[in-house]
Amino acid sequence: MLTKTKIYLSSPHMGGSEQKFVDEAFRTNWISPLGPNVDGFEEDLRQYLGNNKYVAALSSGTAAIHLALQLLNVSKGDEVMCQSFTFSASANPIMYQGATPVFIDSESDTWNMSPELLEVAIKDRIEKYKKPKAIIAVHLYGMPYKANEINAIAEKYEIPVIEDSAEALGSTYFGKTCGTLSDIAILSFNGNKIITTSGGGALITNDLELKNKAVFLSTQARDKAPHYEHSTVGFNYRMSNVLAGIGRGQMEVLDDRVKARRENYNFYKTNLSNIDSISFLEEPEGFFSNRWITCIKTDSYETREAIRHALLEDDVESRPLWKPMHVQPVYKDCLNFTNGISEDLFDKGLCLPSGSDLSQDDLNRIINLITKTL
Ligand SMILES: *Cc1c(COP(=O)(O)O)cnc(C)c1O
Which UniProt keywords apply (predicted)? Predict the structure, then answer.
C-alpha cells in the first residue's frame, strides 16, 4: 500500500555542518550559555547584517523583544504601539513590563502596520497626554513593512521603533537587510523559522553599549565583584553554546533556504493563478520577501475552510493567517486603531506548507488538492 507522508507547514531543515559545531561544543565541554559557538554565531550574523551592527544571541525572539523594551525603559503604565496582525509574542513582552499595548491595524499592500493609522493613533495618544514609549512593527511572513514611512513618523514624534524581524531574516527593503531598518531589531530561530537553533533569538543594535547592556541583563545582571553582586533585576536569556552551534551551521545555508522558499511561492502562484477565488501578496517595488510562509487570500471564509479541510484530510498541514491581537480574548479590551484589513485577512487567508525541504511531489500533491476542491 502506498502511504502518504504528512506535510508540515514549516519544518526545520538542517544543512549538514550543524552537527560538527554541536560536536565541537561537546568535545570542548562548552555546554553553557557562553562559548565559541555563541561568539561565532553572533559574528556570522554580524557579517550577514553588516559590520556596523552588534548582535546579542539570546534564548528566544520573545526574550529579545522583552530586552528591547527594557533597553528603551518601557515600564509600568507606559503605552506601546504594536502591530495587531502578528503572532502574540510581538505583544506579550509589553505586558511583562506592566505596560499597555495599543494595537494598530494593517494596510493592504504589505499586510503590515498601516503608517496612516499609526500616525492617527500617535496623535490621539499625545492629545490625551499618553505619548507612546515605543512602536513594535513586524515584517509578517517575511514581507517587509513600510519602513521609510514608519521611521519617518517615528522620527517626527521621537518614538523609537523595535523592528520585529522574527519571520524576515533574508528579506530586504530597498536593498537593506530586514533586521537593520531601525535602532533595535530582533530575530527568532525557533523551530519553524527560516533558519533555526531549535529555540533561540537575537537582539540587533547599532550601539555597542546597548548590546553590552542586553548581554548583561540576559546573564542575570551580575556586577563586577568576586562574589555575586546585583544592583539590577536580571534575566536568564542568553543563548546556549550548544544551540548556537546549530545556528552557525544554519547560517551557511540561509541563502539556499530563502531561494527554496521563494521557489515554493512562485510555484504556488504559477499553478493557482488561474483560480479567481485565490490571490497572493505581491512584493511592492523595492520589497524582497524571504517568503517564509506562502499565504493565500481566498474570496470567503467558506472557501478558505474548504481548502483547509481538504488539505487536512490528506494529512497536509495548513493554517489560517494570524488572528489579530485586537480580537484575541487576552487583548480585546486594549485600545486599538483598526480598519478591518487584518480581520478580513484572518477570515479569508491561509498559510500553505512552505518548508524549504518540500519536494516537487509534495508541492504537486498540494496543488492537486486545492484545484480539486475549487
Ligand atoms: C516567532 C515570532 C516571535 C517570537 O520568537 P520566539 O523565538 O518564538 O520567541 C516574535 N514575533 C514574531 C512575528 C514571530 O513570528
Answer: Aminotransferase, Pyridoxal phosphate, Transferase
